[in-house]
Amino acid sequence: MAMDPWNSAQDLVLCTLCQTSVAPMYCEFCHIHLCKDCVEKHFSDSSKVHKVVPLKQYWTTLNYPQCRQHPIKQCELHCEQCNISICVQCISSGKHLGHKQIDISKTFENKTEYLQRELQELVKSIYPKYQEIASHIPVQKADLSENSKKIKTAINKQGKVWHKEIDTIITHLISYVDEMESKHLVVLNEQESEITRTIFKIKQNIAELKKLMNSKDVCLISEYKSRNAEFRRLPPKLNVSLPNFRPQKIQTDKLIKQFGSLSALSFTTEEQDYSMPTQGGAKFFPQDRSLMDKPQGITVIDTGYKILYGVTCLNDTAIWAHGDQNEMKLFNLRGELIKSIQTKSGNKPQDITVTRSGDLVYTDYNDRTVNIVKNKYIQVVIRLQRWRPFHVCCTSSDDLLVFMDSDDKQTKVVRYSGSTEKQSIQFNDKGKPLYSTGGTNYISENRNLDICVSDSDAGAVVVVNQFGKLRFTFTGPLSTTKGSFNPRCIITDSQGWILTADYNNCCIHILDQDGQFLRYIDNNHVRYPWGLCVDTRDNLFVAEQFTGKVKEIQY
Q1: Which stretches of 226-368 are DSSP H helices?
Q2: What pTM does this model have?
Q3: Is the Cβ–Cβ distance between 161 and 259 less than 8 Å?
Q4: What does the pLDDT look like over 215-236, one tens digit per residue?
């Protein structure tokens, strides 16, 4: 006899949208359960095609598999231990006695939801990530071409400089040779003229002597005066060391070094981080869960910082941390350092967060900038004047919420989309400042889009709605044996609970999204908690300021 999956399971299926009413309807395209009140709301989303049918009809039209052991029977149950579909006769055989058996329609529903999540992750996260990576390649090609053009231009320019310098050297040497030749020629010409004159005189003296030799005139011969003594003083011999050119052997290696060299081309691969997306952003609320009777410690990670300020989850397997140094460190949950990144200015970061695509963002208080790290390159996203960025968080819409203070001691929260300011929150309805000055103010967005700020100077948690209107202020439980409330970091989890680190009392406060105190986390030897974050499974990570350790806690 076939089982009726509707009668056996209808009391277990709740509406996916409101999470309170029984869901007799099912959207075959969106794969979600709907109560009657939420059907109209679901149809109002005109961006998708919907086909809503009674859940009983949806289940009864399933194509139930044929039993492998009893081919004439249809499988209506699934054995979790054996991980196979089974029929009623399989149960009667006793082979699955003591095993957990669930309705196959429930298995189909769970698998369908899993496939929907897989599809959503592929379409909304993985595929866009690959598209983004692919889009970088044409940019890299363009950069390569542009870089090659710049290098060739620089080489040609250097070549022209060298040619000009060599031409100048050649011109100078030739000019110098001409100058030396001219000077030498002047000297030779002067000597030649002098010798020519002396030769002329000698010829005259020879002619005169020959004339006297043929003469019988006693007076002329007796009056003769010799000039041979004058002519015996020969002109000095001019010894000239003629210049020569000694070309140097060309040393190519030295020429290359002096001319300029090209750095080697290198290829490196870098692992790219992938962050699991939260499903549907702020519109997706996981099923309610309760607080554990006693929170449990899971992992302790030693960051190596002498003073540790903050921690943020990259994904469910890695966390970023920052402290009293100018670098931010990424660790896996085994405490192994994956990589570290130094700030652009050399200042220590004031706060860190991670975007929905997994990029690290940090504030530089002294430099007045908010920066994002993309593939090891640091880009300034926001540069402020008169204001300094203090703490930052990333919202469900991938905006940045930045808490900042001014040179004249004002404070405010500003929402940015990229570098564009979209919203500023500073005063309440009476025109009074929402936040005090001089303290430590962390910020977080809740799943209902509330903006939560911890105000250590006021000893309070200040919560406004998405439009900046004050919802409530929490200053600590009404009845407590602990000291005054001294909040540091503030975060929210998938339940909409607000968690804030109480520094002086060495504990964590948990509030609901309306500001009602739920409990403390104070039994895990937490010492001076400062930074907090939660992963997608709501595991809590606590940064202890003076131990430099991060403690993972289930609560």
Answers
A1: 228-232, 252-259
A2: 0.53
A3: no
A4: 888 888 888 888 888 888 888 8
Contact call for residues 100 and 81 (beta carbons, < 8 A):
yes
Q: DSSP class of residue 236?
A: P
Buried-state track 127-156, b at ≥16 Cβ within 10 A, e below 16: eebeeeeeeeeeeeeeeeeeeeeeeeeeee
Contact of 398 with 437, CB cutoff 8 Å: no
Closest CA to 393 of 452, 467, 335, 448: 452
> Rounded to 10 degrees, what is the CA torsion of 115, 116, 120, 126?
0
pLDDT digits (tens, 9 = 90+) for 147-197: 899 989 999 999 999 999 999 999 999 998 999 889 888 988 988 898 999
Residue 346 — left, alpha, or beta (φ > 0 → left; ψ -120 to 50 → alpha)?
Answer: left
User: Torsions phi, psi of 160, nearest 5?
Assistant: -60, -40
* Residue 540 CB burial class (10 angstroms; 0-12, 13-18, ≥19): buried
> Per-residue pLDDT for 4 more than 50?
no
Average pLDDT over residues 315-339: 93
Confidence at residue 530, expressed as pLDDT on a 0 to 100 scale: 94
Distance CA 49, CA 47 (A): 7
- Mean pLDDT estimate for the chain: 86
d(CA 375, CA 382): 19
**Cα separation, 23 vs 16, whole angstroms:** 8
Alpha carbon dihedral 35, 41, 44, 47, in 10-degree steps, equals -70
Q: What does the alpha-carbon distance between residue 242 and residue 188 come to, in Å, rounded to a whole number?
A: 13
**pLDDT number for residue 382:** 95
Query: What gap in Å lies between CA 534 and CA 493, rounded to an integer?
Result: 7
Cα–Cα dist 465/429, whole Å = 13
Residue 411 Cα distances to 24, 369, 406, 501, angstroms:
51, 16, 6, 21
pLDDT, one tens digit per residue, over 327-338 is 999 999 989 999
Are 373 and 341 a contacting pair, CB within 8 Å? yes
3-class secondary structure, 505:
coil
- Measure the CA–CA gap between 442 and 457, rounded to whole angstroms: 12
Taking only Cα atoms into account, the Rg of the chain, rounded to an integer number of angstroms, comes to 46
Q: Quick one: which of 505, 506, 426 has its CA closest to 468?
A: 426
Which pLDDT does position 522 carry in this prediction? 86
Residue 537 near residue 503 (C-beta atoms within 8 A): no
Query: Which residue type occupies 271?
Result: E
pLDDT tens string 357-366? 899 999 999 9
Closest C-alpha to 307, from 69, 523, 528, 547: 547
DSSP 185-235: HHHHHHHHHHHHHHHHHHHHHHHHHHHHHT---HHHHHH----HHHHHSPP
Given this model, what pLDDT does residue 10 score?
A: 41
CA-nearest of 67, 60, 64 to 82 is 67
